[in-house]
Each structure stands twice: as structure tokens, then as C-alpha cells.
Amino acid sequence: MMIRYLQLTFLAAAFAVFGCGTPDPYVLFDFESDSELDRVNWECHSLFELSEKHAVHGNYALELKLFPTKYSGFTPVIGIEKWRSYSYLKFDVYNASAKQVRLNIRIDDQTPIPPYEERCYVNLMLKPGANQFGIDIHELKTTDTKRKLDLDNICKLVFFLYQPNETHVLYFDFIRLVR
Question: How remote is the C-alpha of 62 from its chain's centroid?
Fold first, then answer.
């Protein structure tokens, strides 16, 4: 009887520590309230608001209108994040355009602003309509030095279009880290 009790106690502790195989994602942004908009840096030539259109998780998505300029996008405020225990940065984007759009993502692991060669950039093509992306964060490297990012020190995340020649409307939702 005592052995069975110890086995069950050990099993319960293992589930508490390691989870049960499908851990909940760590949600960075879900855009379900105005308070989340306070955590998004407003950039010139970009307008954003919560929208019920194209929400994939919950009731709202971030509707982002990006106007022609050199860099048009948004910077969610994340502080210093420890991403090492996760495998993927996942998010959903709905491209309202009939054309493909190149989305650029910048991820920094140094403060203050690192030089270009010490920044990580990921380029993705958004097809018209719904898109879901999963970026293997353990493969992220800086642009020129090819240094792997310090996943215990992620301090900046930027989503942007580079020199769009027309206005684009994108809907972002459910930005998360998963194991």
C-alpha cells in the first residue's frame, strides 16, 4: 500500500513538473482587450485597432493598416523574455490583399539597440487570406555574425513590411510560444 502511494505521489509530481505531453502555449499577445493595445508601440504610417474580423483565438484580432513608407509595422512590448524552454514562435496573420506580401520579423537579444549584424531577421511570405506560421526559435541566428540568439534574453520583437508601395491590411492574432 505504501509503495502504491509513493508511486502515485511520484507520478503526480512528474506531471506537475513536466506536464502531460501537450503543454499550454505561452501567449505573448492575443489581442482580446484594449489593455493589450497599450503594450503595442505605435509606429508612424501604421494604424491598429481590435477587430472581430479574422480572429482565430478568442473574439478579436489586431487589425493593422500599413501605409507606404520605409518601415511600416508594429512592435509589441515584451520586456525581457526567457524563450529557451519553448520550441516555436507561432502566430496567425490574415492578409486582406489579393497579392502576396513579404512580412519581416526582427528579434533582438541585446539592449540597447544592437548593430544590424547582431539582429535576427526572419522573412515570410503572406499569401492572400489566412496564414499560420511556426518559427523554430532554436535555429534563430543573427544576420551577419550567424550567432545563435540568447533565448533567455529576448527583448524586442518587431513585425514590419519593408518599403511597401501600397497600403496593406493585415490581421494578427494569437502570438505565442509553444513547446
Answer: 13
Strand segments (E) across 42-128: 46-51, 61-66, 71-76, 88-95, 101-108, 120-126
Task: Using a cut of 0.70, tell me whether the model's pTM lies above it.
Answer: yes
Q: Which of 111, 164, 121, 118 is nearest to 144 (CA)?
A: 118
Could you tell me which CATH number the domain at 24-178 has? 2.60.120.430
pLDDT in tens, the chain (179 residues): 444 433 434 444 444 444 444 357 999 999 999 999 999 987 788 999 999 999 999 999 999 999 999 999 999 999 888 999 999 999 999 999 999 999 999 999 998 899 999 999 999 999 999 999 999 999 999 999 999 999 999 999 999 999 999 999 999 999 999 99
Cα separation, 140 vs 148, in Å, equals: 6
Q: Domain locations in the chain?
A: 24-178
Coil, helix or strand for 34?
helix
What gap in Å lies between CA 70 and CA 51, rounded to an integer?
Answer: 26
> Which three-class secondary structure state does DSSP give residue 2?
helix
